[in-house]
Amino acid sequence: MNGGFVRWVSSNFWPAYNPRMFFWFNAGAVVAIAASNVLFDLFGGHFVVLPVFWIFGFPLHGVTVHVYWTIKQRSYSPGLVTSVLYWIIAYMLARYVYVAGLVSSLDFWTGAVAGMVLLGGFLTIGPTWLFPKFVSRQAET
User: Fold this and answer.
1) pTM to 2 decimals?
2) CB of 49 within 8 A of CB of 114?
3) Contacting residues for 6 by C-beta, under 8 A, at least 6 apart
């Protein structure tokens, strides 16, 4: 939709962004998410922070990047539809896991806040501002 995510990023923020970069970035994220889930499945307890981190980092990114840029550009931001899935999962985790007392407040809020600040912040600032600046400075030298 709207040319796809790679074209959207390369047209608006990071001209050097390409399908290979998209693949490796997402492959790394999938491996990290899977590792987080496996660690929690194997050891339980406080390791629940790791999946919660991912579950709350992506919805914030959906708002700060995809909703924001859809409104600002008055054009669909690829990833917006996928973001809705993360919002649903975050809601279900909060409503049916946290409220039900299946996760401690400390673990839930540690994972949620860390995910929003670190992952959500990284995904908001990285591709739209930080990476393009870094790449342009390398090209100048």
Assistant:
1) 0.82
2) yes
3) 17, 18, 19, 22
